Here is the input.
Amino acid sequence: MLTSFPQYGLVARWPQNGQGWIHPADITTVTRLLPSERLLRRDAFDGSYYHYQYGQHRFRLRPCLWLPIGATDGIDVGDEVETLGVGMERELFVGQVVGMYYVRRKGRILYRLRRGDRVMPQLYLHDHLRVLTPKQNVRPSDFEHPTPTWNGAGERIGDI
Here is the structure.
């Protein structure tokens, strides 16, 4: 089974008794972040643990109860965004995303922003934001590249 990363989802409930599903080095971080409606990014699987990221927090969990969220809006925690006006109802400013939350009853992702040193009290929809952080999009290769082989002396063996 080939899995593509990154994946987004949440751990809304504590998956099992104890902490055996958490990497021992990450217990402090995980117990502060989970369970919650925070939208986590899952970046890799090393055979034992999934590698997660939420802003600057990185941690590892064994496969556990996880609610996957299909498509995201292309905004991540840490991105710089500009708010878009809604008539005369919303103040325009440039801020940083400090929180991503999935509201299950609405089926939408909401974002918490920081403007300077102040965290804004209201949550924003994707429709009210424009991403300013440049994103790199690299499409997958169309063909397989052969891997060169090397001898112990640093010389290439075989043709690539």
Q: What stands out?
A: DSSP finds one helix and twelve strands in the chain.
